[in-house]
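hiii so um. not sure if this is the right channel but i have a protein structure encoded as tokens and i wanna go backwards to a sequence. like what aa goes where. can anyone help
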């Protein structure tokens, strides 16, 4: 089974950690913690250390949901909205005359 949590600005890390641990103890095999601010997803499993998948990465359901594949960027895509660049271009300076 898979659980997905989305961080909100008001979430406290202690509460989130507690919730993730409860999921894992209750038999949920895979937990994804989506961080809209940092635009990444942290993957939690009971049998491995957590790992962060960045916006340009891909998540899978691993052996639990083998056909599940999703790009992390898709969590942050808003239909009809312009795509935001991943990085801002450097600001050009005017030459002094």
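sure thing!! here u go:
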């Amino acid at each position: 089974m898979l659980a997905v949590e989305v961080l909100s600005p008001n979430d406290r890390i202690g509460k989130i950690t507690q919730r993730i641990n409860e999921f894992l103890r209750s038999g949920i095999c895979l937990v994804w913690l989506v961080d809209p601010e940092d635009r990444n997803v942290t993957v939690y499993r009971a049998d491995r250390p957590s790992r962060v998948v960045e916006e340009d990465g891909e998540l899978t359901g691993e052996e639990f949901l083998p056909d599940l594949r999703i790009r992390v960027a898709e969590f942050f895509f808003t239909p009809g909205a312009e795509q935001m660049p991943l990085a801002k271009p450097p600001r050009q300076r005017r030459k002094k005359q």
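oh and The first helix runs from residue 13 to 25.
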